Amino acid sequence: MAAAPCRNPFGIIANLDGSSRFLSRKLEFSAVNFPPNVEFSRLGFYRSLMCKVEFLLCDYVQVLSVLYEFLGFVGRVVSYRVENSRSHIREDDVEHGGHVHCSSNADGPTNEEVLTPVLDMIDNPMNLKNLSLKELKQLADDIRTELSIMSKTNKSFRPSLSTVELTVAIHHVFNAPVDKIAWDIEDQTYPHQLLTGRRTRLNKLGQANDLSSYACRNEYDPFGTGHGCSSISSGLGMAVARDIKGKKDRIVSVISNETTMAGQVYEAMSNAGYLDSNLVVILNDRHHASNPKLDQAPKASINAVSSTLSKLQSSQFFRKFREVAKVLTKRIGRGMHEWAAKIDEYARGMVGPTGSTLFEELGLYYIGPVDGHNIEDLLCVLHEVASLDSMGPVLVHVVTKEEYAVEDNQTGKASEDVIKGACTIESGPIRSRPRTYSDHFVKALITESEIDEDIVVVHAGMGMETPFRALKDKLGDRFFDVGMAEQHAVTFSAGLSCGGLKPFCVIPASFLQRAYDQVVHDVDRQKIPVRFVLTSAGLVGSDGAAHSGAFDITFMSCLPNMIVMAPSDEIELARMVCTAVDIEDRPVCLRYPRGAIASLDPNLYLREPIEVGRGRLLLEGKDIALLGFGSMVHNCLRAHAVLAQMGIDITVADARFCKPLDMKLVRMLCKNHKFLITVEEGSIGGFGAHVAQFISLDGLLDAGVKWRPITLPDNYIEAAQPNEQLAAAGLTGNHIAATALNLLGRTRDALLLMC
């Protein structure tokens, strides 16, 4: 509905009402209301004045009619010009019915034409303000169509399907970037990014310097998204800063039910309830849980009753009535306030879903559940929430689902394509993808678990790779998936070890950063034999810096009791799993990268432990020694092949262990070569730093050996193809060979190699 009230000094009100984004042809006038302080002493004066009022009223009608026609004309012109500039109109289509065909961005991954007429008109969230309800629904369909096109990349857009209508409603009600919107998980922000002018970059996802460099702070993202759990804390901080500075902008924090497994969410909610700052928290409950028992738990039902109650709870009348009741019961005293509060909590708990009173106990006013795919309900609730000037923290419980299908056949087919998704290397079916390090790790661990029944697995992090699902089915009750609760996973593993079991704590390398305090105090300081398996170590391609495991070598190898090792191939991986099983006096860290491996022999499995702290010599030369750690050993071999063609004889060694270091191997390399190059897919301060510490204290640097480290650069590597990321980091075989040529004084050859 659109309304344009017009007033005159006498209180005559004219309303222009309609259902379109422009003013309609329906004209209404209210009764004439004169100011109460006007007095009339003579009937003749009254009649004369009424004639003048009628004359003025006729003038107002004429003016309003002209104004209406003018606004309608301007609206039609603006609409035509916007549609004409946004759409690619084909002459033959216009002649046969005027259909507008809009193609995805020309720079995108496909030339396939799709119909996204409303989305093509959106440059920024302000363009949503004048859209009607029907157009907003069409916009949601267009976004799903666009996601279906982008799903042809290696990026999964499945989580974003649950937030399409929610994102449209948020941007229609709130005024970004004046109002601040903080998201919890990057995978759910793609509709938000489509509506905030980043459609072109989304279509380039996976290319060098793509969207992930914009996923941090920018105009429409006041706080960068990462692994989750941060949006309420950051939103509360922005709300308190707003209050201190006397501003009036609104803060919205969107969280997922996956992140509610982490303790920081409840810490933030508790503090928000205590501070009582105005904050809107939207819980996107997408019926997804990593714990199977949670999947079997009752879900919040959406029906006409719940929809009506949610609208009632969010209404200004109900909120004001509730506040007045609080004041009255406090004045009455005699325990009346506490008695009324218990009745209110009991009544709201009866009509609300299971667990809704928890948010009330933390100090947040609960509204819900709301159908997250019903734009009309979302707009109603969010409009009411946004209209309250002093409301304190509010939690809006929105129920969504990834598998939501739209009515339109073409868009529905596109949405179905999105649901099927573009399989990444780690998530696709085993038969349709190359074998990965995770496949070989699971194979090795299953073999070990059949021999040793004390082996258990604790899995933490966001989502689960396909190989670990097979491991979960195999181990049954000996496999524990705790979701995004890394701190609990570490200490839980320590407790399992104290109980006589042999826990393997499987966590993506970047997610372990959140549990580092537990690693230090609950495991390493007590020398508890927990076997950490860090997946996705190093660069991770299209997932960018948010999921890159760049720092684990550094922060794990600095711990006094920790063993840190990394395999160079699948055979070494199997041997290291066997080695970890046998270590029972201290913790172990085993890291391996994401992605496919060059299989040496898929059927070969060696159950042969490696001596702790013992590396190996792969190729022996005389000019330069390359000492690789983990997956970088293969790039050292590629550099060897390049340099061999230039007549340079080099040595390649596999360190295997960062800690304890193979001092005998390092000492031999330094004594037999003038130059030593260490190569690792980790940050500064990792494997190379340990080598430098040893050779300096051992006096090997004084003997004349020249040492050069090759590590990840001191900056974040954003999303790109894996080979592009390695090139940006200077870790390819050519980069290693160029470093060797520079040490030999062949600078020109090094430059030619990099061209």
From TrEMBL:
Its EC number is 2.2.1.7. Its cofactor is thiamine diphosphate; Mg(2+). Residues 435-599 form the Transketolase-like pyrimidine-binding domain. InterPro entries: Dxylulose-5-P_synthase, THDP-binding, Transketo_C/PFOR_II, Transketolase-like_Pyr-bd, Transketolase_C. GO terms for biological process: terpenoid biosynthetic process; thiamine biosynthetic process. It holds the Pfam family DXP_synthase_N. GO terms for molecular function: 1-deoxy-D-xylulose-5-phosphate synthase activity; metal ion binding. Pathway: Metabolic intermediate biosynthesis; 1-deoxy-D-xylulose 5-phosphate biosynthesis; 1-deoxy-D-xylulose 5-phosphate from D-glyceraldehyde 3-phosphate and pyruvate: step 1/1. Keywords: Isoprene biosynthesis, Magnesium, Metal-binding, Thiamine biosynthesis, Thiamine pyrophosphate, Transferase. It comes from the Eukaryota. Belongs to the transketolase family. DXPS subfamily. NCBIfam families: dxs (TIGR00204), PRK05444.2-2 (NF003933). Homodimer. This is 1-deoxy-D-xylulose-5-phosphate synthase. It comes from Salvia splendens.
